[in-house]
Amino acid sequence: MKQVFLIICSLVLSVTAAQTKGSSISIGTNYTINSKILKQDRSIQIYLPDSYATSNQKYPVLYILDGQWFFSSGVSIQKALRTPDAIPEMIVVGIKNSNPLRRTLFSDDSEKFTAFLKDEVISFIDTKYRTNKERIIFGWEDAAYYISETILKEKDLFSGGIITDGGYASEEIVKSFKSNKAIYLYMANSKKDIFNISETEAFNKVLKKNSPKNLRWKYELFNDEVHETLGHLAMYKGIKYFYHNYDDLVFESLQQFEDLGGLDYLASYFKARTKRFGLDDEVEIDTKNILIWSALNEDNFKYFNSFVEEFEGILDNKRHANAYWKNRLGQFYLKHKDYKNAKIFFETGLSRYPNSNFVAEMKKGLKAAQNNK
Description:
Layout lengths: L1 H19 L8 E7 L4 E8 L11 E7 L1 H15 L9 E5 L5 H5 L4 H19 L2 E10 L1 H12 L6 E5 L6 H6 L6 E7 L7 H14 L4 E7 L9 H12 L11 H7 L1 H16 L7 H13 L3 H10 L12 H13 L3 H14 L6 H13 L2
Parallel strand pairs: 3-4, 3-5, 5-6, 6-7, 7-8
Antiparallel strand pairs: 1-2, 2-4
């Protein structure tokens, strides 16, 4: 009996061990660059998009200063905003730094650090990987001050910058900014960041006063945060700002749709998106669905009919290919005395989904539509 007990215990432990066996999780690769400019070895982290290995496309790159702290934030934001496609897939590059060296490189030796970025890091990334030359750079605290000046001085180096808990460029530098293309700058801070808030506010005032042509900037305060906690949120908001016209359009109400310009605004939005990102200028199916659903939710039959007419076939797409939607659309038409269309949706629903939970409602609706034809 003792031997049997030991055998059973051994089997249980083996099964438990097999069930709890783990494996490592990797979000990127570490590389070491022997920098001739900085005369030292520098570590960078690189994350490649999920589709990289199976595609031939080129990707934008997010460069993160102080990758030792924020590289994982860049990867997680990239993955989260890709579900669904709020932003394009991106290569993420973290550049590790250490104190007090980072403070020196971001200030007194900033020109040397820019040369390192341009001629060694970016050159390495563009040579080794498929990039489309669209680059965004993120920096917190001292790195924010560095980016504030660099984004204005080196206008061809980055397409956008995200700075948080710091940042300032003199009026002279702001006035000297010239670019033939739009450069984006996102700035974030908190009133609780007593170390840097005054300079960030001053920088925003300089930008407002001079409004440099082709510099698109946005400044936001997050006063629930403190100096150490704003980095991840600022990166998230900054990436969303840079790609503000990449995602499908969503309206909170029909009134907002109307206030923005209705169908004309819709067309201009997707044309601008095509020009900037090379995407299809056709209105996305998700935007069409949102407008249809808004009309249903607000019980606006006039707008509903105009959307159905404008977006040919919208009610036949896969989102509406189920008993719930056949019944809901039938009931909506019935309510607004369009008995012909009500009958079509009820009959289709009953034919395709004879065992659904909506059969009784659809039969009742169909009878009402037939009696009023």
